Amino acid sequence: MGSVGAYAWSMAIGDGAFHKGQPIWVRQADGSAREGVYVGEGETSAWFGGPPTVYVVYPDSESGEAVAFDRITARDG
């Protein structure tokens, strides 16, 4: 009962439908789409609930953000 191993487990968050470095479209609030690159899954949605999020980078501005998963679609490289 005093073993720490009894309470510890490993956890991996997979990339799912997209892979790191994949070119994507990110739907903007005005309905337009912006070119982005998929970086990975947002961990906060897995731990704290809420809609699934992903991290994206925008090559045109060299900036990034976390966005809702349903805002991204694959695009040809």
Considering the chains and any ligands shown, give keywords for the structure.
SH3 type barrels, 38% strand
Q: Topology of this structure?
A:
Elements: E1 23-27, E2 33-41, H1 43-48, E3 53-58, E4 63-68, E5 72-74
Antiparallel strand pairs: 1-2, 1-5, 2-3, 3-4
Low-pLDDT windows of residues: 1-13
What fraction, in percent, of the residue positions are helical?
Answer: under 10%
CATH architectural name: Roll
The first-to-last residue Cα distance is 53 Å
Number of strands: 5
- Look at the structure and give the mean pLDDT: 80
Number of H/I helices: 1
CATH topology: SH3 type barrels
Number of domains: 1
Widest β-sheet, arrangement of strands: 4-3-2-1-5
CATH top level?
A: Mainly Beta
DSSP strand content: 35-45%
Largest sheet data? 5 strands, antiparallel
Based on secondary structure, the structural category is mainly beta
Query: What is the H/E string?
Result: EEHEEE
C-alpha Rg, in Å? 16 Å
What is the 3D shape? globular
